[in-house]
Input
Amino acid sequence: MKIIVINPGGMSTKVAVYENKTAVFTQTIEHTQPELAAYSGIAAQKSYRKSLVKQVLNENNFKLEDIDEFVGRGGMVRNLAGGVYRINEAYLRDASKGLNGQHASNLGGILAHELAQETCPGKCAYTVDPVMVDEYDDIARLSGLSDISRVRSFHALNHKAVAARYAQEKDSSIDKLRLIVAHLGSGISVGAHRYGRIVDVNSALGGDGPMSPERSGGIPPLALIDMCFSQKYSRNEIYKKLIGQGGMYSYLGTSDARDIEKRVISGDKKAALVFESMAYQVSKEIGACATVLEGHVDAIILTGSIAKSDMFNQWVIRRTQFICQEYVIYPGENEMDALASGVVDGLHGMRPVYDY
Output
């Protein structure tokens, strides 16, 4: 079974072809700001990104006709339980308009669907664990303001993937484990996993939780209100301050954690303060998840690109090791493998496949 996996990001589109669960090739297409600025929004980038996906296939000696199954990263559609989903008209409608927000991941399922249709009209495409997975306990949904729910987007795909990986390595199953997973990337999400369900997690894109390389995380709301009504900034400028130019970028002018770590090593005290502050906030969020699990935690998992930093990991471990002695580091993102594996498992009856 040959599977094409499509994962659009803010400044890149990742493309891979798998033979069952084994990657034949993986390639990241980088997009420049001027290239994307030529389009009015995420939805308008569809044809541009699709042409690049086809180009990558051709460069790696594949034709669309060679592909058996098509899967794309799930976007900001309606809230739904984790799982493997067939792309249908309802999904395409919700992803196209960005039902819960605008993000490049909205294009993942759309591109997979359109490419599948080019090979055979009526052929199914799939997505796995979209960013709007909602398995919250009801008690976790309340924000303190009846108009607003805490349920928002996060890195559900990688959360689910590393939890399953840990369970497999321990010869166990996720429905027997209580885990805390911290995805550390351009956005950060820390979730409490109880017996296979992610019952609480901060919103990585919704202004909640720790600051990240480019996002502010939770900040004092009254000060933010004053900023919004100061008449100094437009709505879009405020949005960029929170998402894109917030977090480490706001303090240091860069969101590249690798460069910031080099600055710390070279003796930059401000960089050290900001980098460790981010670890401090992640640690606080892990502590919060420990209370959700009532102190019964089998393992704490650090994943995402920043988990490649031993410096950052050690700061977090030092502050949270009293919670649980089992610490596991799965550096990098596992999204491409998770998408391919989800489809294989679904089509072989190892996971249920749902209609969106």
Q: What stands out?
A: The two ends are 23 Å apart (CA to CA). The CA atoms of residues 164 and 174 lie 6 Å apart. The chain has 13 helices and twelve strands.
